[in-house]
Amino acid sequence: MRDIIIGGMxxxxxxxxxxxxxxxxxxNVACRTLTEVLRNDLKFESIQLVPxxxxxxxxxxxxxxxxxxxxxxxxxxxxxxxRAWVTGGELTVEAKxxxxxxxxxxxxxxxxGKADNPRFFAxxxxxxxxxxxxxxxxVARTKIAFVSNRDSENGRTKELYIMDYDGYNPRRITVxxxxxxxxxxxxxxxxxxxxxxxxxxxxxFLASIFEGKSSNLTxxxxxxxxxxxxxxxxxxxxxxxxxxxxxxxVANADGSGPRKLTSSPGLDTAPVWSPTGQEIAFTSDxxxxxxxxxxxxxxxxxxxxxxVGNWNDAPAWNPAKQFSEIAYTSRIEGGxxxxxxxxATRQVRQITEGRGSCEYPSWAPSGRHLTFACGRGGKxxxxxxxxxxxxxxxxxxxPGKNEQPDWGPGPALQ
Amino acid sequence: xxxxxxxxxxxxxxxxxxxLMSACGGKKRGPAxxxxxxxxxxxxxxxxxxxxxxxxIRSVDPDSAAGRDFPISDPSGEGGPLEDIHFQYDQADLTDxxxxxxxxxxxxxxxxxxxxxxxxxxxxxxxxxxxxxxLGERRAQSTREYLVSLGVAADRxxxxxxxxxxxxxxxxxxxxxxxxxRAHFAVSR
Lengths: 414, 189
Known about the structure:
The complex is a heterodimer. Helices cover 10% and strands 41% of the residues of chain A. In chain A, the strands form seven sheets. In chain A, strands 1, 2, 3, 4, 5 and 6 form a six-stranded mixed β-sheet that branches. Chain A starts with 11 loop residues before the first strand and ends in a 7-residue tail after the last strand. Chain B is α+β, with helices and mostly antiparallel strands. Chain B folds into two domains: 46 residues, no CATH class; 104 residues, CATH 3.30.1330.60. Helices cover 35% and strands 12% of the residues of chain B. Chain B has a four-stranded mixed β-sheet. About 32% of the residues of chain B have low confidence. Chains A and B meet through β18 and β26 of A and α3 and β3 of B.
């Protein structure tokens, strides 16, 4: 058992510059990236960092055996040291996490791999550090799926992409040059369910992203869209108009055995599962305006969750069990914004403001952050906020209209 | 306008006289079978009358009982022989203006029995992706139902919702939004 608990408001992390073991340019560049990305990752997880100007006062020293008194002097309680070098296209990183007051290293890791993406090494280290904290699991290696028209030849097609959680390394997933929208990660991180118009009317498909394969989950009867995986990955919920009106349906993960869960004359759309898989939240305008409802996963015991405002739509259930809340898109003073409603208190807090329309919320697996898209007039970008709404940042996702983000699980299960 | 749609329109312009000529009955190979435009051939009962020494009967594309005499919609998803109708914000009800347009569209569809029509429901950018997909389908359905009530065979009308995924106008003004809240009619053979 470890004797040092990291986290909370008490710890202050010092992350001095990574030291390149060789003086060559490739090692220098890798080291600069490692330092910058690790600092950003830890900051994102709301870890307090010791400012650069204080670290500048630390006398030069051997980072393998730091002089802990110097670091105590600038109120650092944790110290992360990194050495890195590039040889023959391979990057090696040695990293240590030191507990300054205890005067010892509590984590020592050596990573080696292809040198083309040093960011990944920093993300891995961040997640390993987070695993030792009482804050919760890190998200530095998670991916966000999204929709973009960046590769469209006529501006009218949309494809699916994935990127790192911080907006870097976007990669294209679909290549069918049609409209592909509403991506939803499978819980194992290996597939995306999505809506595609490749057969003229919207149907749900499954992209196995490592195999580069796609299969259809619905078969052209009515419009089928907005899929969502159950937390165990065994079922999908989606919207379908196959009975004439948009209702919530549930099927096995391969699309077999579809069953209709709702029967209302209103539009029922946008189903998502609770963290336990026992309930489904969805949007319905059965009472005249779109509102969020919750039912059990058999379609029974339907009750209305939102009461404030005349348009509340597209729920996203916080996956962390300690946060019993649903994020959604709400029309507030004429514009659409992201809001969160707490189950117990029914208190609503607004997350976005003044960024055009914001919609399509999706939670990080930690439940501490959420992503969404904001824009107006065809210019849309993907944003990330913490669950308090204190910090909202827009990701450098790249060119085009970028929208409909879905935050995936951690590294794919092999 | 895309290059492809320009090309298509250029082709249609070039072909239009030829189509008209064949519809009116050229000297050498006048159509003995009524084509879809009907009136220009005189009467539909004249199907087997030899014309000016031409063949007694003309073969007809088995897929196209009424010949190929109408323009289909541009594959880019705009234009075509039928006029779009427009909707109020967050509504799928038909306005009086939309009904008047649908009455003209129904006449055209009934006069072109080979035409298949896909009714596309579209929305403006406000509201969520998912809700607008459902709303677009509701618009397509209410449009289709009205066409059926005007005598169009239900099996000639398919519906599809594009939600807010295919705006005509990417502006953020109310006039852009109003243009995008539409039902479009994609005509094919």
